[in-house]
Amino acid sequence: MLSQKLKEFYGKVVERLIMQYAEYLFLSEVISELENERFTTVARIAKEKNTSIAVITRDPAYLELLKPIDQKISLYKTDLQRLSDEMTYPNHYIWMMYKDKAYRGTSTEIATLADFRRHCSPTGYICSTRFRFVSAYLKKNKKVDLTDYKKYPNDMKLSYFYNIDEITKLLEDLDFLTKWKQQEYLITGDTINKWNMVI
What we know:
Oligomer: single chain
Largest sheet: 2 strands, antiparallel
Strand content: under 5%
Strand order of the largest sheet: 1-2
Helix content: 55-70%
Structural class: mainly alpha
Number of strands: 2
């Protein structure tokens, strides 16, 4: 059983992650605006010179004019990647709680197990890998099958799901937590390489 004190602590961790997500969205918006500004500038020059956008984007003289905005975009993308690398989940419980809370009230809200399964289904997506890891570990080591739709129905609230015993007891499983952290904090050489694994 997860103590109230630990739940509150995990809640604070999730609050920090949500703040980071807000920063991520803001930086993404700034980058998008700059990219739109760049395209508008290129289109205007092409119109003035009566040529195509493709010609302008290959011309060194015009690329020099675009250099300041390109540098801004590059710097903001560096910030965005840093932020993405920093957003880590110390355990599966915090990850699931974050997914439950971060998207509330949005078009991508993850309120039910169906939403969560859908979110964790795209091939090559990091959350898909996390979910496969949790599912595979539970099936192999605890004889728990998360694909059992009778026991874990699609309409189950995600907030209920990550508080069931099968999920919370993994917080006491040192083998599971060690393997989770090895992947969540994985660095290969100088590159942050979270969940670069195949299950």
